[in-house]
């Protein structure tokens, strides 16, 4: 218990590190994965505004006489959006989670 209460001093102390130094041990593969993961995060975040636009389209459809055809067109867009969101979520979790690259000892 005394060890956990003691402040660390010397070489094992908590030190602040500059942001760019966090990537000193990252190779090109890691950087490519981080960039691709960041792009997929942004793409995944775009799904919410797209859903708002699609809901606006489906509400506008109710004013037309040929509702069935237009509703099915917007429904197919929702299906495409669901597939898009699923792929982007998968890429986000795959590329930004570096645990699968860590060696098991």
UniProtKB/TrEMBL annotation:
Annotated GO CC locations: plasma membrane
Signal sequence interval, chain numbering: none
Gene3D superfamilies: ABC transporter type 1, transmembrane domain (1.20.1560.10)
Membrane topology field: Multi-pass membrane protein
Membrane-crossing residue ranges in chain numbering: 31-58, 78-96
An example molecular function term from Gene Ontology annotations: ATPase-coupled transmembrane transporter activity
Compartments where located: Membrane
Keywords, in A-Z order: Membrane, Transmembrane, Transmembrane helix
PANTHER family, per database record: ABC TRANSPORTER B FAMILY, ABC TRANSPORTER B FAMILY MEMBER 9-LIKE ISOFORM X2
Protein name: ABC transmembrane type-1 domain-containing protein
Native species: Microthlaspi erraticum
